[in-house]
Here is the input.
Amino acid sequence: MSIAFINAQFGGRLGSLRVRDGLIAAIDADPEPGDAVLDLRGDRLLPGLINSHDHLQLNNLPEHETPGLYRHVRDWIAEIDARRRTDPQFEAGICVARDERLLFGGIKNLLSGVTTVAHHDPLYPFLTRPGYPISVLRNYGWSHSLYIDGDQSVVGSYRATPSDWPWIVHAAEGRNEEAADEFERLDALGCLKPNSVLVHGIALDQRQRARLKACGSALIWCPSSNMRLFGRTAEVTDLVSAARVALGTDSRLSGARDLLDELQLAARLGGFDDGCLEGLVTHVSAALLRLADRGALRPGLRADLLVLPAETRLRDACRSKVRLVMIGGIARYGDAECVLRASTDTGWTRVLVDGAPKLLHADLSDLLASTSTREPGLELPRVTGRAA
Here is the structure.
């Protein structure tokens, strides 16, 4: 199916964009015979958002109420492990089948306009199934952290990762000397290279951030999780200016509800303009994760697209305002007037998202209907109804 978006707002102007065979085929070209034409009437057309850090299997767990601020993330992890033994509801959430929890994490991201996620855990087979709600980064290396995996395992993971793939590791997640020293240890181990991507980086000082830039390495910023656990977050202004920062959510266990909420906090903390914020979740994140086929509106790239109401800034966006999410040229979710014009598929389920009527692809709603886990704010019909 070929689709022509017309009267779309992007790049500070109104223009058109054609989608064919899952790719962006042309910018500012007239619709061709046979195209489905979607007149956006000034609505914003953006690249699909990229969430650069999530633990997709942990988003069904209830938010952990912290008794105080932590010095190092190891203390929080120890507390979470202890909670499993004392909180039956929490343990029940962990015992939900992993594929069901992964589905829940995918839906969380889809509803917020995310089309690609960097999952910081093994690439479980369920994440690569054709019917998974979003696209998941596939070519990456990773280690959890120095304090969990140890030096030898971290070095082995880095060396086993091809140099043109990102290698992702939690580092400097805390407020004490141990957290600050993790950067030095990674450097001494030979793990700070152009493909190295550090997550959190709260304890990095100005000198270390300068070295991070000099190495060509990058940082994934998760401000909601950082503020909740440590009462502070990474200093990122200098790294953002150098296009070395992308934005991630962590999971709901410690972070925000979704990437749109994370963007709101990033705007308040960083004072970044709208273009800068968009870069953190589109073209900059795509570059840092070595995703050359997405993150921008350009012919030849994947048709991963997000439509928001006219003049809606990302810092002001929320799930109920998402008008269309398209992944690889296939509509997955959005307002009926957009979804039904952008798809020949008749398999749609009418749902409510935070009280707003939406359509969700029926393959996804069918999967959700068979699970025990429920996404807060998402109301499915008791019997799946398909909208023509």
Summary: The chain has a mean pLDDT of 95. Residues 73-86 form the longest helix (14 residues). The chain is about 30% helix and 25% strand.
